[in-house]
Amino acid sequence: MATVVQVQNLRKVYGSVVAVDGISFEVQEGEIFGMVGPNGAGKTTTIECIEGLRIPDSGSISVLGLDPQRDGYELRERIGVQLQESALPHRLKVGEAIDLFASFYRRSLPRKERDELLEFLGLADRRKVPFAKLSGGQKQRLFIALALINDPDIVFLDELTTGLDPQGRRAMWDMIRGIRERGKTVFLTTHFMEEAERLCDRVLIIDHGKIVALDSPENLIRNLGAETRVVFTVDGAIPAEKLQAVEGVRRVEQIGERVIVYGEGDALVGNVVNALTASGIRFRDLRTEQPTLEDVFLALTGREMRD
Amino acid sequence: MRGWGKLIITEFKLYLREPTAAFFTLAFPLMMLFLFGSIYGNKPTPLFGGYGTVDVSVPAYTAMIIGSVSLLGIPVVIATFREKGILRRFRATPLRPQAILVSRIVVDFGMSLLGMALLVIAGKAVYNLRFEGNIFYVALAFALSALSFFSAGFLIASLAPTTRVAQTVGMVLFYPMLFLSGAAIPLEILPENIRRISNLLPLTYVVKLLKGMWFGESWGKHLVETAILAGILIVSTAISSRVFRWE
């Protein structure tokens, strides 16, 4: 896999605030790369420096082998951009916006594929609707359409799902997976840990302008060494020492009818269930609680992530 | 130059969909012409140097169109585009920034010209409008006036921190000029002391230049107007190009 984005020692200061504090990372072709962190962590500054919309104070950036500052126009021919905050003229219709933006590029999707794109984004019947009359989700999807209109190699999505309800957010995740299946690299920022965990191949956690961690969500969670919890309900007592002896179990707690088994390893649930069945214990409402990226952030920064 | 044509066509469509802008540029001046035309007709009077009310109104209302496009239209449109992040969205494409500026000028110029053309057509058809100038000089005077005022509109948009400020500044400059520059009310019927104020208002020079060229006066008699309008154009453009912000 080729490296499509390369960032070295990127630094950007606004007045006395260090927005991005000397970060370095790479993005590989074909992955969904997520930048996660609380508001003000430096995500938007970083992504906009990569897009060539902001000028870094120091450090170097290479995108598709181009320098975003020196080769800005050429770069923007080949990337798709969805900005965190932007709008279109309020009387501009969806279909007109698509055709207008398509005209800005050397190479853009032919008409048939534009129609398919609108279909894919659920905007096919909105073509004649002016921008101001679109719902929040429809505006977001229109901006995705504009970000894909030039058939870009990399798509940058900044806080794409902010302001969407949980249902809209899930639909958007499916769309982003669909974009990757079209062979694009996706670079996104989010302050929703769950979004990063479900969607991204690799996650860069950023806080106060510095990289806190960079790996796949699975690895980040595994390396945390956090415990998995198996929770269930029983009538009466349980043979705690038998459960204690099960492979992977660290400790067992019983509070009234509720039992919590703490442990690790992928086989934990199966082993616990087998031990319970072998002992003839009837249990109900069994579920497992896995550590999440949220726990990773808490462990690495000592703070809760907040929306 | 890719995308420029499409942008210009789209901007024209958007202009016509904006009821206020289209009204002040196209409909309102015509309404004024028919209103005063029906009251006074277009008989030559000594007050207007041997011309009729409609004769002097067509170049004056043309100045009014230039003023409203420049001061009510441009500052608000540009400031809104900036405040809402529309300019940023354009900037995230390969479109050259000059395209946005040029498309704005082409559309505003075109719409002002259309407004003037409607006045001329209505004046000719209904009131037997007199024209004694040279079309080339009238066109030149129109172009200088329009570009000069457009650049002032861009300057307001560049300096104003928000759309509201841009709108307020535009209106505060426009409305006194509308009534005191001879654009809506002929200078000839204004009292002497008011006319002294008129001489401080830039739109007065647009009215004088356009009227002069309309009735075939020599350009040499209008060097003051020319110098003032050219000065506004140069100074405004120089400042805007330094202080203009995309966001």
What is the fold's blueprint, element by element?
The complex is a heterodimer of chains A (307) and B (247).
Chain A: E1 3-14, E2 17-28, E3 32-36, H1 43-50, E4 58-63, H2 72-78, E5 79-82, H3 94-102, H4 111-120, H5 136-148, E6 154-158, H6 166-181, E7 185-190, H7 193-199, E8 202-207, E9 210-215, H8 217-224, E10 228-234, H9 240-244, E11 249-255, E12 258-263, H10 268-278, E13 283-289, H11 293-301
Chain B: H1 4-17, H2 19-40, H3 53-83, H4 86-91, H5 97-127, H6 135-159, H7 163-180, H8 192-198, H9 202-214, H10 223-243
Helix pairs in contact in B: 1-5, 2-3, 2-5, 3-5, 3-6, 3-7, 3-9, 5-6, 6-7, 6-9, 6-10, 9-10
Any overview of this molecule?
Helices cover 34% and strands 29% of the residues of chain A. In chain A, 41% of the residues are buried. Chain A folds into two domains: 3-222, P-loop containing nucleotide triphosphate hydrolases (Rossmann fold, 3-Layer(aba) Sandwich), CATH 3.40.50; 227-290, Alpha-Beta Plaits. Chain A has eleven helices and 13 strands. Chain B is globular. Chains A and B meet through helix 2 and helix 3 of A and helix 1 and helix 4 of B.
Core attributes:
heterodimer, A: 307 residues, Rossmann fold, Alpha-Beta Plaits, 2 domains, four-stranded antiparallel β-sheet, B: 247 residues, 10 helices, globular
Q: Which CATH class of the largest domain in chain A applies here?
A: Alpha Beta
Classified in CATH, the superfamily of the largest domain in chain A is P-loop containing nucleotide triphosphate hydrolases
Secondary structure tally, helices of chain B: 10
Structural class computed from helices and strand pairing of chain A: alpha/beta
Largest interface: A-B, 25 and 22 residues
Low-confidence stretches of chain A: none
Total strand segments of chain B? 0
